[in-house]
Amino acid sequence: MKHLRPVNAKAQRMTEQAEAENDIVALQSGRSTAVKPHVPMGCSIVFSPGWEVDSAGGTAGLCQPVERDIYDCYVTCFWPAQVPDHLNNAPDWTAKCAVATKDWRNLDIVFP
Amino acid sequence: MTTYSTGDVHRFHGGGTEYVYLAGSGGIVALDALSAQILSRLEQETLSRSALVSQMETDGFAAMDVTEGIDELYQLHAIDDGGPRAVSSQSLPQEFPLQSMVLNVTNQCNLSCHYCYEFGEDKVATPEGKKKFMDWETAKTSVDYFFAESRGRKAVHITFFGGETLMNFPLLKKVVEYARREAERRHVSIDFSLTTNATLLTPSIIDFLAENAIGVTVSIDGAKESHDAFRIFKNGRGTYDVIEPKIKELLAKHKTRPIAARVTMTSHAMDVLGTYKHLKHTLGFYEVGFAPVTTSPNRLYSIAPAGMDSVLGQFQVLAGDYLEHAKRGEHHGFSNVSDTLAELHQGVNKALPCGAGLGLVGVGPSGDIAPCHRFVDSDAHNLGHVSTGIDREKQAAFLKRGNIDSKYDCHTCWARPLCAGGCHHEAFVRYGDTGHANLHYCDWIRAWTDTCLQIYGTIAAQNPAFLDHFSERKAS
């Protein structure tokens, strides 16, 4: 490396590895800078609940039952999920849910 | 179009050199003027590659050099291009042989320190109905188990702990002799250490410790006034006057290992500089380590946030003193700095805050295995028994809980390679969950890590040979 000088042991190993990688890349097409499409992780294999209720506090009458929409649909995917409006009305909705598998009970119901 | 932004880094400088700490890996690299300027530009705004290059050209750098610099920074994850990057969290190795065992030879103590995590108000131990002193049978089984489970290791370590360790000195002696023979037979090297309150030291014990090169850490909170505020006998009398002559004798006779002092800081004992001076220069300890008391926040002796700021200020002054010594190549006894520098120099990037439950276990007087000495005798944290071994499911659950991967709060913090969320036991006392990040001292950790980074950078720039002290990774 010309502009960065490794100082500690970890950085030393990282630069050695980066330089070794450069050798191989030079023989091929180089690192692509094109943005790759976002491929969401398969929704069905993760546990991530999402909660929404209708104006009466029920879930049965929703156009999609809550069981179909999960937390990850909303957070990492494009799906217009049945979860509270995280931008305007319930910005702290997930504040207490660091890990959905562990903390999903902290995802409270939000009343409209 | 690719746009660049700064990556997960913390910039610092020392000794006239600009550095960057790579939070994803623990690497430290020195920047030249060009790479520093690229980062400064990207701190202002995210920029496309071409915009970045042309801005840098107006700063007087050649386009060719700039593209090189961008690629180098990108390779080390100091800048991001918004594209996906594989962030693989390394799973723990299936087989992780033990390296250290802490043998709590007794859970009894002749003192009644208010803040004690073993007996005090925030205790986690449930010693009712359990053995108070470890017997020889249990100790032998523990040592055998330890050797069996440390297979493949060339060097292992046994620490004696309590209660007050020296209340069961006869057993300690026997264990040292037995473990030495076993180590020789198995062709591994072994060393020993213990922590004590020093009240029970006698000339013959000191001789034994010196002859066997047993490392000694003395719990002492400074000069008489601050020490006697909490470290008292059961009748309320302070212990300072009893231990002072014993410590002097220990330091005079025990030269085979450096002797350390370990200070518990409380609302009554926050004078870092005075305490250090007393312990290092008046008494003559080789090194002095400080740790704030482990407590729930409402205890009278807990240090309020404002108090921690003052402690940090004193830490920084003492750390400055360390730096002056290091520049001259001299030893300084402030071990909080040397411990951190050692980790920075290696570039550790921790999945777990410490080795508890992984390479290190604590064993209670009854032979119960705990993640570390602080959890010994706690039913809720029991990991097994030396006669039957570690319950792998419980161990896996404990380690998963404490892993940085599950501490969401830590994922955006640049200090996580060293901190990894902090002590499991502290977290349990504070939040009732060993896997909770210790959020109450985040600002403190970041400020302290930054101080140590600056010291590291200054030493690396002005006296790099000093860092050779830290080239060998500590055995324990």
From TrEMBL, chain A:
Residues 41-112 form the Quinohemoprotein amine dehydrogenase gamma subunit structural domain. SUPFAM superfamilies: Quinohemoprotein amine dehydrogenase C chain. InterPro entries: QH-AmDH_gsu_dom (IPR015084), QH-AmDH_gsu_sf (IPR036487), QHNDH_gamma (IPR047830). Gene3D superfamilies: Quinohemoprotein amine dehydrogenase, gamma subunit structural domain (4.10.940.10). One of its GO terms (molecular function) is oxidoreductase activity, acting on the CH-NH2 group of donors. This is Quinohemoprotein amine dehydrogenase. It comes from the Bacteria.
UniProtKB/TrEMBL annotation, chain B:
It comes from the Bacteria. GO terms for molecular function: 4 iron, 4 sulfur cluster binding; metal ion binding; oxidoreductase activity. Residues 95-335 form the Radical SAM core domain. Its cofactor is [4Fe-4S] cluster. The gene is peaB. Gene3D superfamilies: Aldolase class I (3.20.20.70). NCBIfam families: quino_hemo_SAM, rSAM_more_4Fe4S. This is Quinohemoprotein amine dehydrogenase maturation protein. Keywords: 4Fe-4S, Iron, Iron-sulfur, Metal-binding, S-adenosyl-L-methionine.
